[in-house]
Amino acid sequence: MNGATEAELLLNCTDMSVLERQKAHLKYHHPGFDPTLAGFLSGPSTINGGEIDGFLGTAGLDLPVIYGETTVEGSCQFGSGNFKKRKFDCVECNEVKKMMMMMNREDEEEEKSKITEQNNESSKSITKMKNKAKKEQNNCSNDSSKVTKESQKTDYIHVRARRGQATDSHSIAERARREKISERMKYLQDLVPGCDKITGKAGMLDEIINYVQSLQRQVEFLSMKLAAVNPRLDLDIDDIIAKEVVSAPMTNLPLPTTVMPSYEMVNAGYPYEMVNSGYLHCNPMQQVATSSDQLSCFNNGEAPLMWDSDVQNLYSNLGV
Amino acid sequence: MQPTSSMKEEFLKKWQTGLQIFRPSIDNTNVTERKKAIKLSADVAMASLRKGTTCWSRALIQKTAAEDNFLVRQMLSGIKAETLINKKLPKKTVCHRKIVRRSKKILLRRSRSASEEAAAKAKKLVKRRTQGLRSVVPGGEFMSNDVLLIQETLDYIVSLQTQVNVMRSIVDAAEAGIER
To answer: Which end of chain B is more exposed for a tag (fewer CB within 10 A), N or C?
Structure first.
């Protein structure tokens, strides 16, 4: 029975399509098999294959074109674009910005389409500037010290265009300006006491303003004090200095290191005073004595001898 | 950037010459007169250290020259006093009031998100402080950009520190002399 049906089927299959024949065959061998499933299995596969073939065929033709457009052409554009862009910025911006551009090169490659557009717009000006830029670049490269400086700079310049940040010259200039301000603010932080604990620009500015005002008030106060201390204005600075030399070790004995600067200052200041002969209140010999052994002079009671009668008069006026 | 001893020394010399100039005119006067003289001479001495290279020193010299022209001229005899006193400061930036108001209105009309609001507030705070700094530093209103302002503030603080250090040491010395 089997053989007969098979023969019949095969006979029937002569004018059936290959597909239908296969289905029939499957149906014959596996009676429970769902013909639709078989159709699903066999039919689409061939169609798919055809499709894939066709796709591959078209793709095989198309892909080089696409790649040519995107990668080859693109990279050419990008390379030249980058190059141009950087040069453009060399001319326009300062070294810092150029540095940033160097650093941003990678980031720029992501945004190269933008830049190429920009370049297309400004290609004329760029070509004009190209020669200049080349010269500048040559200068830069010739300067080895500059290059080393730049390489050192890379450590702490954090201004760089991240993804999505603008790379046009305006925003880069703005970023460089902010960087400069923050750098100066750091110096100010070192200079102004108690400012290093404060974060935030507003707080720091507050502290700086307070400090400047306090310094100005101190100047007022000190000048007032000096005016009150000296009944006449002729208590000259040089004899005050001389006194300071004598008295400083007495008042600041526990901290000799803090006194040292004033010694230096005073000793360096003396030659000038001696040249300016009008206001000599102690002669060179005594000055040597004071500078060499101040404490002993003072302790031995020789100090009054050093000063002119002018100062002694002053003391008597003061009632000391 | 602490005040160096050479800076102090130079300041001292300048100040002394200033006081010498004052001496004949303000001997035996009251305390406030003397104080004013001391303050003026110290200021001019501090400003002349920079030889007119910085904006604040030029502004300070011009300000003191308005108070006591003779002294400033005498003290700056080494440098070209005339050029310093009459040197024009950079122009003040003047905004047209109407334009500013209109642009503010436009800004207000734009709806902002919370983060933008906070950023704007912070910016405003910083701007106010910067304005305050401008009023504190002499000639600050002439410094158009923030970078210049902060740079000048740095220099001004160093000079002020020099001035205060020298003056304090001298006051201490004078007091010590009186006590003795």
So the answer is: N
In a domain, B172, yes or no: yes
Query: Would you say residue B109 lies in a domain?
Result: no
Chain B contact for A274 (CB, 8 A cutoff): no
pLDDT of A76 strictly over 60? no
CB contact under 8 A, B178 and A212: no
A244–B42: do the CB atoms touch at under 8 Å? no
Provide mean pLDDT across the span A125-139.
Answer: 47
Asked whether the beta carbons of B26 and B33 are under 8 A apart, the reply is yes
Q: Please identify among residues 104-133 of chain A the ones whose CB lies closer than 8 Å to any CB of chain B.
A: none
Position B91 confidence tier, pLDDT thresholds 50, 70, 90 = low
Size of the A and B interface in Cβ pairs below 8 Å = 168
Assess if residue B140 is contained within a domain.
yes
Answer yes or no: do A318 and B178 touch at CB < 8 A. Answer: yes
Three-state SS across B4-54?
CHHHHHHHHHHHHHHHHHHCCCCCCCCHHHHHHHHHHHHHHHHHHCCCCCC
Q: Is A275 on the interface with B (CB under 8 A)?
A: no
Q: Percent of chain A at pLDDT above 70?
A: 20
Q: Is the pLDDT of residue A208 over 80?
A: yes
To the nearest whole Å, the CA of A208 is away from the closest chain B CA by 8
ipTM: 0.82
Give the structural domain span for B51: 5-93+128-179
Could B177 and A240 be called an inter-chain contact, meaning their C-beta atoms sit closer than 8 Å?
yes
Residues 6+ apart with CB under 8 A from A308: A239, A281, A282
